[in-house]
Amino acid sequence: EAGVVQSPRYKIIEKKQPVAFWCNPISGHNTLYWYRQNLGQGPELLIRYENEEAVDDSQLPKDRFSAERLKGVDSTLKIQPAELGDSAVYLCASSRSGTTYNEQFFGPGTRLTVL
Amino acid sequence: SQQGEEDPQALSIQEGENATMNCSYKTSINNLQWYRQNSGRGLVHLILIRSNEREKHSGRLRVTLDTSKKSSSLLITASRAADTASYFCATDVEGTYKYIFGTGTRLKVLA
Questions:
Q1: What is the pLDDT of residue B1?
Q2: How far is A90 from chain B (nearest CA, A)?
Q3: Nearest residue of chain A to residue B87 (CA atoms)
Q4: CA B86 to chain centre
Q5: Chain A residues contacting B, CB < 8 Å?
Q6: What residue ranges define each of the domains in chain B, with the CATH number in brackets?
Q7: How far lies A36's CA from each of A39, B28, B47, in Å?
């Protein structure tokens, strides 16, 4: 089966510019996660979707970050405006259901550099 | 914030040797998972151990879990150069569906 697809793989922008990341999860996976991974650190959850509903966005900086999963399939994460501290790898993952006994399948990530 | 912390932060061994890395966490969990991340790539799931399990094996991997000490260990036996990667533990905080990843152990296996 095809894995989690993310685009773009790399993005370089000036600070204060907007940026968007796209994720297409594995077919049939209802749960979708967005993580941010800073250099040398583990991933940190930004938001979790069950189908089209954001069930945990407590870690999402809502002043500048937004996300959507309109039809419960693919998802977009947006930052507007970007700040220097947003430079990181943004990972998307999916799993079959909302239980945590299912493994998460990760995409390759989008490496964001904010200048 | 990171719940789990892996120890050591970095480990360098010779091919054929065993590699052991540890993970400590703070809250009660339903399960603990280990993931591997090769340089510049996404994470790959290795193994899941439930809170009522004490040990689990998968190929050359052996995972133990001690819920009384809130710790887990991952043993890779007969390591290979291809095992060079960062290894992360991830715990789901009991009562939530949130995974929290540790800070990772960077393993280097020398040929």
A1: 47
A2: 10
A3: A42
A4: 9
A5: 4, 33, 35, 40-45, 48, 55-56, 91, 93, 98-101, 103-109
A6: 5-110 (2.60.40.10)
A7: 10, 24, 22
By C-alpha distance, which of A53, A62, A58, A48 is closest to A91?
A48
Per-residue model confidence as pLDDT tens for chain B (111 residues) = 456 688 899 999 999 999 999 999 988 888 899 999 998 678 999 999 999 999 999 999 999 999 999 999 999 999 999 999 999 999 987 767 778 899 999 999 999
**Which residues does chain B have within 8 Å of residue A23's beta carbon, measured at their own beta carbons?**
none
Interchain pair A108, B42: CB under 8 A: yes
Q: Which positions ≥6 away from A13 have C-beta within 8 Å?
A: A19, A82, A112, A113, A114, A115
Q: Domain map of chain A by residue range?
A: 5-114
CATH number of the domain located at residue range(s) A5-114 in this protein:
2.60.40.10
